[in-house]
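Notes from the 1:1 (GR / supervisor)

We went over the backlog. Supervisor wanted to see one worked example end to end before approving the batch request, so GR pasted a single chain during the call. The sequence is below; no edits were made to it. Supervisor asked that the structure be written out right there so they could see what the output format looks like.
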Amino acid sequence: MTESDLHKQLRPLIRDRLGALMRNPVRAPGITCTTCLTPLPAPDCRVCRECHRQSMSGWPLADRVVPLTYSAQRRQADRDMYEYKSRAPGQQASNDAWQRLSLLIAGFTLWHTDCLDAVSHHPVTTAVTVPSLRGRRGPHPLDELAAYLPRTWRPTALNAIRTSADHRERRALNPAHFKVVESAAVRRRHVVVVEDTWVTGGHAQSAAAALRLSGAAEVTVLPLARRLSATFQDNVSFLADQVDGGQEYTIDICPVTGDACP
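Structure output shown during the call:
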């Protein structure tokens, strides 16, 4: 099957399965954070409070963050980010949440990985998935979803070093949470960090910092979803306008630019 055939096959599936449930992240200066695309508290802000705090940490952070959708509390897209993990490895075919997320990643792979290379200093060569800091045993379901990423992105391992039951500790920005198993695989490379949900960004940015400290030349964080709290005041009108009343998800909006492909 050619790439053109895959486009023709996947486009209606993406429209029918994702259109009403997911939303394209908004890249709009003065409206959303230029790093994580969360709504800003005021139009004269450039980044949200958490991303600003992280930028002042002194750790080397990701060069860019490219969420594929928003997940808002009490919406189906947010439930999907939990429910895709609910089946044992190899038994995902009947999991609706898994199917939707695999379509989301496959669509990015077919339509927009070239877009990422177009805005980068180095083409992507390597990918890691962010391991759980909860002490989860066995392979993470995210590893299986990452199989839908380009085959040219060589997977390499990132191990969790510090596991904790305290969610504040897990979300703290600290590259010591992770160890790059094979430094030679990331040195002078552009590495994509695949994360399922960006909440505060501390988890993914800790992984990015660990990679940069191991010699990665460039790091892009690829969260499947940027999670938005429905009770946080800065999000209320944004959710009403952009998520509940906004345009349905479409593969034609580039997640790298927020507009047309570069």
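Supervisor's comment: The beta strands are 64-65, 69-72, 124-129, 154-155, 158-160, 178-180, 190-198, 218-228.
Batch request approved.
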